[in-house]
Design goal:
By secondary structure, the chain is of the alpha/beta class. It has ten helices and 13 strands.
């Protein structure tokens, strides 16, 4: 048996903040934001929509899609940079909300790469036969750490959650290969302190363009595949220009890349599962497709996974 995805889910707050709204808040323009980032609007959570609340909604969605109940979840991993409090973990909060009584819970801190780190962590427990069903949630309330007076950063981020249940699938499906990496010396380029995000946009941009393409190609090679075998790319939704660089490196047509950045902005650890769940709901991913999921983020961190979609039983 192999480790694969049994179900995916997502949750988005209803409130929409458009580029036109931001024009009234800081010295910016729809034209600047659209051409530099590809973002047109983003979702903003209400006071009631906590990080755990949004994560729980996405989690229940994914558990239902997997044909399971919360009681059947053995482990909950939550990737987030915006937990509602420093402890208990957001994973424990989500456990309580969804009633996953027997689950072991912990958070993963790898910024926007958190979902990639979580997939690989889940794979270890499942492949070793320790746990059967691992719920992995990416959930972010970035609006809570956004400096709404800083035009360099406030136009980029949004709120939302995505989730996946991982478990055993037949040999020919599931995770084929992965790559994870970290470089603490780059921490100075992208960090949050005293609840505010600081970013050296140009440095992060250069790193991301290089790393996304390299990591995507690396997992394809590790899986014994070539670019021609890849059906769909799900990149971290930070900036359309960074995503496009990865897509072009893989020679994929536009319609073979998940693109939600225009509607939701950069939702950090949520962005990959959110995009994955949306593409699956829209019927753009089918059994047997080879997917490459790839992300980068603060740390600096990066990660990619190649997987064959489907359960095969
Ligand atoms: N509106 C108008 N002008 C702006 C805005 C804005 N919202 N923000 C910055 N500018 C100005 C700057 O003041 C600067 O002006 P100057 O040249 O007079 O100094 C200029 O625009 C910046 O230009 P560039 O640096 O050339 O812009 P660039 O093409 O690099 O785009 C961006 C900036 C979008 C931030 C890009 O660098 C980027 O996407 N970087 C990666 C960001 C990223 O992915 N971060 C991950 C965060 S993950 C996390 O934190 C959880």
């Amino acid at each position: 048996m192999n480790t694969g995805i049994l179900g995916v889910g997502r949750y988005l707050p209803e409130k929409v903040l458009t580029n036109a709204d931001l024009e009234k808040m800081v010295d910016t323009s729809d034209e600047w934001i659209s051409t530099r980032t590809g973002i047109k609007e983003r979702r903003i959570a209400s006071d009631e929509e906590t990080t755990a609340h949004m994560g729980a909604k996405a989690a229940l969605n994914a558990i239902e899609e997997a044909g399971l109940t919360p009681e059947e979840i053995d482990m909950i991993l939550v990737a987030t940079v915006t937990p509602d409090r420093s402890f208990p973990s957001c994973a424990c909060d989500i456990q309580e909300i969804i009633g996953a009584k027997k689950a072991v819970c912990m958070d993963i801190s790898a910024a926007c790469s958190g979902f990639m780190y979580g997939m690989v962590t889940a794979q270890q427990f499942i492949t070793n036969g320790i746990y059967k069903h691992v719920l992995l949630v990416g959930t972010e309330k970035l609006s809570s750490i956004t400096d709404w007076t800083d035009r360099n950063t406030c136009v980029l981020f949004g709120d939302g959650a995505g989730a996946a249940v991982l478990g055993e699938v037949s040999d020919e499906f599931g995770i084929l290969s992965f790559e994870l990496g970290s470089d603490g010396s780059g921490g100075k380029h992208l960090y949050a302190e005293r609840d505010k995000i600081f970013m050296n946009g140009r440095e992060v941009f250069k790193f991301a363009v290089r790393q996304m393409g390299d990591s995507a190609l690396s997992v394809i090679e590790k899986a014994g595949l070539t670019k021609e075998d890849v059906n769909f790319l799900v990149p971290h939704q930070a900036n359309i220009r960074i995503m496009e660089a990865a897509r072009i490196k893989l020679d994929l047509p536009v319609e073979k890349m998940a693109t939600t950045v225009a509607k939701y902005g950069n939702t950090s650890a949520s962005s990959i599962p959110l995009a994955l769940a949306e593409e699956w709901e829209n019927g753009n991913i089918k059994d047997g497709d080879v997917l490459v999921l790839v992300g980068f983020g603060g740390g600096l961190t990066w990660g990619a996974v190649a997987l064959k979609w489907g359960k095969g039983r």
